[in-house]
Amino acid sequence: MKYLLLMFILCLGINVNDQKSESENVKAKIIEFFDAFHKQDSTALESMVMDNIILHQYQLIKTVRQY
């Protein structure tokens, strides 16, 4: 009985540890995506998304009028 309880506790600890590392991996990928987004690196963005996504490029042109 003690052996089963010990195995259960060990398995529970391993499961929690796996969830934490998976969570950290997801956070790292999100940070990587937004870093590429802010750098306007379309090659890096295309490598991170699904194949059937269509990326559009928009650019705001700011004109300053002097009177």
Descriptive keywords:
single chain; 67 residues; mainly alpha
What's the assembly state of these chains? Answer: single chain
Mean pLDDT: 75
Supply the helix-strand structural class.
mainly alpha
Count of helical stretches: 2
Distance between the termini: 87 Å
Shape: elongated
What composes the largest sheet?
A: none
The share of residues in helices is 55-70%
What can you tell me about this protein's structure?
There is one protein chain. The protein contains 2 helices and no strands. By secondary structure, it is mostly helical. The mean pLDDT is 75.
Strand and helix map with partners:
Layout: H1 2-38, H2 42-48
Can I get a quick summary?
This protein is mainly alpha-helical and 67 residues long. Helix content is 66%, strand content 0%.
